[in-house]
């Protein structure tokens, strides 16, 4: 069972995450929320920023999101909306973005759209989750770079107060060192 709520939270935290829109688009398509799916796939393609792919391995997701996959899935949604001509145009655009080894998939998809048959959308392989590297997670622990505060210099004799406090109003004679301390 799919639910878009987890992807909503992900996109709220990083609204430039193309793969988040891509995965939420798949969920919306499975829930037959076609307009929302179409919007998500458009957002995913826009967040690719004219790049042919984004490799998410650096972030801990063993997946590469390709522009042609996003366009293919967009065409799949348009098929469900009975927009066959628009689906064909989108697939032709995907052909421009495709790697050579994926040519057969897109040619088959164009034939299916020509025959008014639905396309199955592309998706991130099931079970693939963001898993940050151990080294990156360890760095999330808070570190004390400053250490414990200590009094280095004070006008008050034998001052052992450690900490911070706001400025106090000066009282006459309170902070003045004694004549013995001056020697």
UniProtKB/TrEMBL annotation:
Any GO molecular function: superoxide-generating NADPH oxidase activator activity
Gene that specifies this protein: Noxa1
Top-level taxon of origin: Eukaryota
One GO BP annotation of this record: superoxide anion generation
Organism from which the protein derives: Toxostoma redivivum
Protein name: NOXA1 oxidase
InterPro entries in the record: NCF2_NOXA1 (IPR051864), TPR-like_helical_dom_sf (IPR011990), TPR_rpt (IPR019734)
């Amino acid at each position: 069972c799919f639910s878009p709520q987890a992807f909503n939270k992900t996109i709220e935290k990083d609204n430039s995450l193309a793969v988040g829109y891509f995965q939420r688009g798949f969920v919306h398509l499975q829930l037959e929320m076609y307009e929302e799916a179409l919007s998500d796939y458009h957002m995913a393609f826009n967040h690719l920023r004219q790049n042919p792919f984004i490799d998410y391995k650096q972030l801990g997701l063993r997946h590469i999101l390709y522009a042609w996959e996003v366009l293919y899935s967009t065409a799949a949604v348009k098929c469900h909306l009975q927009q066959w001509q628009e689906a064909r145009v989108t697939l032709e655009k995907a052909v421009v973005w495709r790697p050579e080894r994926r040519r057969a998939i897109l040619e088959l998809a164009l034939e299916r759209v020509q025959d008014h048959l639905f396309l199955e959308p592309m998706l991130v392989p099931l079970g693939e989750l963001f898993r940050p590297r151990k080294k990156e997670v360890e760095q999330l622990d808070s570190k004390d770079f400053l250490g414990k505060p200590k009094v280095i210099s004070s006008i008050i004799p034998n001052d052992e107060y450690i900490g911070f406090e706001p400025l106090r109003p000066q009282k006459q004679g309170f902070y003045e060192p004694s004549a013995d301390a001056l020697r």
